[in-house]
Write the structure tokens for this entry.
Amino acid sequence: MKISRRQLLKTVSFSALVIGITPRIAFSAPNALKNIRTGLQPGDKTRLVIEITNRPSYDISYGDKQLIITLSNTNGKSDIKPALASGTLINRITQIQDGTKLKIVANLSGLIDAIEKRQIMVLDPNGDNDYRLVIDFKRGTGVGILANSSSNTAKSTKTTDNNNTNTAKVKQHIIVIDAGHGGKDPGCIGKGGTQEKTIVLSVAKKLKSRLDANGYKTFLTRSNDTYLKLAERAEIAEKKHADLFISLHANANPSRNMKGFSIYTLSEKASDEEAQKLAESENAADKIDVDGFEQFSKDIRIALSALQQHAVAQLSEEYATGCAKSLNRASIDQQPGPAVRHAPFAVLRSTVPGALIELGHLSNKKEEKLLKSDEHQNKLVEAITKSVNSYDFDV
């Protein structure tokens, strides 16, 4: 099941706070259950909120019309009565203490599909609330659920309802690849005359072919020398219900010695001055025609609820970090400084997790030559493909 992420709000703000799915590590001090409650969310989604004293380490599994959340190193409290809102898919919640683990078992009124990462959030204490594990889901067909599995990383499976067993297919993840610039917007231009729009389109096509061969369903925002507004690029990812958005670019720097890749995720506040300047440069693409830019500013209203912001920001950060490691392992030069940075890139304003990858510097003569070569482009594509393969799309 894919959560509805098509909520267009009257704002363009996007926070990159690192709140969300945390590494599943054990805590030295026991956790304690404080509260359990449910609620209804827009789109007929059921929300389950489990409040605990410390940041949780958890697993999610599924039974026969049951959702089971196992909290490591956590003590239950028998006198806690779950607050169950009417109209949700949860009709009963029980606690089962299993040694140091606490199982929260939610009995459901119908089938649901596997819950994805973006449907799970871990919120820090706020006001009267302690840490909260928040899970959103809605009615489905059971596709994607591994019945009675204790692992929340299960990819495929079968589930049983009314004694009928249905074998589910592995989900084909959708990736949108954005070749930056295009048409009347050439992007940066190397000393040898190499245009950014040409390099990134070539890499994008190679990446699409490689990811298709790896079983993904991929789409290009542009497949030829076409000019697209930044809003249109983000909108393509939304319309395709993408699981990941990768925007490809090439950089330029006043220093001809500067070289190497860098990766960016969305944040309203840039991580450094260089990131801010780069975002301003990339965002200026829409200013090529003033009318288009004015309309773009008006139309960029794709935003997330506060909880969804945190989840998408976390997923984007996870992918970007993994991609940087993959490029490093491939011995591709990294720009000095942090491999992953943050800035308000308009093209990344979306409910789809994503990153903007600067493949290298066309302003560097040697790197310009490298970026033009099929060998180096294939090397970049192979590293990015590995980063996608190692990215955990599922819960």
